[in-house]
Please model this.
Amino acid sequence: MLETLTTDVLPALQVMAASDESDARGIGLLFLLAGPAFYALIYFRYRNSHKRHHHEKETEASTHDMRATDTFVRRLTGLSNRTMRGANHKEVRGALRKIF
Amino acid sequence: MTDIDPRSQHPAPQAATAPPGASAESAVPEAAQDPATLAETIAGLSEPEGPQTIQTDAGAKDGLSKCARCGATDISLNVATGNLRCNFCRHEWQSTNMNEAFGLDQGIGELRGVVMGSGSADIIPSTEVVMTFKCSACGAEVVIDTDHSTQARCHWCRNTLSMNQQIPNGAVPDMVLPFKLPKEEAVRKIAEFVGKRKFYAHKRFRAEFNPENVMGIYLPYMVVDVNARAHFRGQGEHQTRSYTVKVGDRDERRYDADLYDVERAFDLHVNDLTVESSSQRLDQTSSNTNNIINSIMPFDVEHAVQYDSNYLAGFTSERRDTNVERLAPIVHTQSQDIARHQALKTLGHYDRGVRWDAEHVEVVGQRWVSAYLPVWLYSYHEQKSGGRSLLHYVAVNARTGETMGSVPINQTRLLGASAVAQAVGTVLAVVIFLVGG
Model:
């Protein structure tokens, strides 16, 4: 195991560190969460407490007489979020199982 | 487009009882001249229009249900063919498909108000759950506990008595979807599912696990068709540029996007939305594993047949104990989810997302049919410290074979492994920080 660490893992880490210092720091922080992440991974794999019927996708449905309006408002620049703030177009509210 | 269907914003009140062309003002004074007509008119005006009922148990009989060829009552489902089979002369036959008999897969767009199968009627609390029938073969009295079955065998003459007529206790639904997956296949699927989750499984569970103990059970559901009008209004963003800027000594990502006002209005037809109709199964919290049974949906309910107790022979059942009134809000919210999801296919341009500020889904018509749907269920009672316990399920959809389960965890082993993972992770993190400077 130690051999694998020195021959494979360390060079890979050095490459990552050299390519982008801030990315390497991020990966380092992720490793600091290895214990809780491993626990959560196994817990959900065994207990499946997050699983539910996806009624919104798995129920047969069709739309008719679709009417759509799309009106340009303005251009936004310099946004820091990769996705729209407050987007709720994929929200699901009718799931019987509430995870949190 | 600019026009949004005004009906979806302002649903018109339904004039249920007034005859065409007659206004309420003119009707009352006329009726006032005749007390009998007045009483009739007032009764007519005050009574809300009830749901339309589809009588699904017409011709159904309680008691001995006999094989048409030999007259035996020992009848059960042949899982391989999906037919009922006489276990005496091996004659097989099929019950009527519900969709063919009642057109349940048609006319969703024409649905108005509430349409219900007679087996979905409200449960009257005073109705007996344990029913007594007189065996017409020998005259003995036979008891059926409808909480778990709608059949019982006469102790004296060994004939099977069936209950097929609907009474308001939720025991006899409109339709039943027969088991299709044989027990051997369910046992194999459960063993495979648990086999992949043994290393961190609880020690006692590993020792006691025996998939042969799986039970075939018909669980109660409501199958609902919904005709709705949906109207969504909000804003969406489409990304036009992505670039990096310098903030102090760090690089940060920035985005430009076009903002749009977005509006969608459409009619929505939902076919066979399925919800649990047992209060026990509806309770899905962290203190139970009912979500496991929920997650093996959907079922191919289009293959459901008219209810016949003989389909339950050799299986158990759970009686429906929930009425449409309690389930209607769940169905409405889930229909709204389906509408939101259906709108997605028109939102491809908005790669940064859409924020709906106003949502309105009006249910114009709905059709409710109660059903028994088949599940292979393995259950395990985990005793925890402090007298607490948790019932774990591994469930197999007995039509599609979809399998899901909850396996009790050996916390000591998992916490130990997590500690090792944390130690390795910490070492790697330190190395990364040292190498990365």
Notes: Residues 1-47 of chain B have pLDDT under 50 and may be disordered.
